[in-house]
Amino acid sequence: MVEELVTAGVALASVGAVYGMAAARVVKQYERGVVLRLGRLRSGVRGPGFTMIMPFVDRLQKVNMQIVTMPVPAQEGITRDNVTVRVDAVVYFKVVSAADAVIKVEDYRFAVSQMAQTSLRSIIGKSELDDLLSNREKLNQGLELMIDSPAVEWGVSIDRVEIKDVSLPETMKRSMARQAEADRERRARVINADAELQASKKLAEAAGVMSEQPAALQLRLLQTVVAVAAEKNSTLVLPFPVELLRFLERAQPGHGPQPAHPGAAHVRSQPAPQSQQSPQALSESQRALDGAADPAPDQAPHRALELAAQAQQLLTQWQQSMQEQLPSAEAPLDPDSRGSNSRQD
């Protein structure tokens, strides 16, 4: 009798252990459990932790409540301005009602994926190319509303939708590059024209200031010469100042023979030392320096030729004075004297 009771107790314990192992379930923190008893939904959703169900009667289905990141395959479509593009996106969603996600839709992940693809193709057809490239925030909001409307009935909430990339044909890329280049060139020309306008105004003001002081123009000319002379490979062209002609005009010419023909001014001459210069040339130089210290008033334009003629006359007189001194310094030896010297040798 005792043995039968012990055997029955062991059998009951074994059955209880098997039943407990079959009924025990563990729900994780990020999951919720939906219990179907004989195909009917139980009202309570099992929370995280240890829970028990009736074996062979209840079926526990776990639903993940985490945010799911689902990439949307690239969809090819034609925009409203007739441009073919390929757009891919990514959807972030989570389950807010575990019972609805199990009962109202067969596979909520597949349903959300198909709805995202359909909505993406629809948003491509309603938008223009410029909106896809520069106004993505507004398109993301519209795409989120289009996906979220049917997903609410499935117990799914769309957290956000982002358009990842927009692929354009090569011809469209080249066209956009030319457009951007033309726009950059237009802006560069406008900026250059504005700079020229501002520079012209400043130059006009500078010219007004220089017109009051004639010496300022000469100083500006010297600054320009210094700037140009810094380049070793440049050719420097100096203008002939009118003030020099005025200085020559004040230096009155002295007495001296005039050249017999125009070619006389081109006779080769050498400069004489300071000690051999004639007093007349020194006095003329002193008068020219006095004229430079006290410049004459502005002359009329018709005096330019007369001043040039006077300058030519002064140059001719100086060359003739140099020619008079050359024979004494460079006179050849007498042939007779050379012969007598050779005979004496």
Task: Describe this protein's structure.
The strands form three sheets. A three-stranded antiparallel β-sheet has the order 3-2-5. Strands 6-7-8 form a three-stranded antiparallel β-sheet. A two-stranded antiparallel ribbon has the order 1-4. Strand 6 and strand 7 (84-95) form a beta hairpin. The chain contains eleven helices and eight strands. It starts with a helix and ends with a helix. It is an alpha+beta fold and 345 residues long.
Write the layout of secondary structure elements.
Blueprint: H1 2-23, E1 24-27, E2 31-37, E3 40-46, E4 49-52, E5 58-64, E6 68-78, E7 84-95, H2 98-103, H3 108-126, H4 129-134, H5 136-151, E8 156-167, H6 170-212, H7 214-229, H8 242-250, H9 279-293, H10 304-330, H11 335-344
Antiparallel strand pairs: 1-4, 2-3, 2-5, 6-7, 7-8
Helix pairs in contact: 3-5, 8-9, 8-10
Provide keyphrases for this structure:
345 residues; rod-shaped; disordered C terminus
Largest sheet geometry: 3 strands, antiparallel
The shape, in one word, is: rod-shaped
Straight-line distance between termini: 177 Å
Structural class: alpha+beta
Portion of residues in helices?
40-55%
For the secondary structure, the number of strands is: 8
Secondary-structure element order, as H and E? HEEEEEEEHHHHEHHHHHH
Instruction: Count helical runs.
Output: 11
| Spatial arrangement of strands, main beta sheet | 3-2-5
Q: In percent terms, what proportion of residues is strand?
A: 15-25%
Quickly describe the structure.
By secondary structure, the chain is an alpha+beta fold.
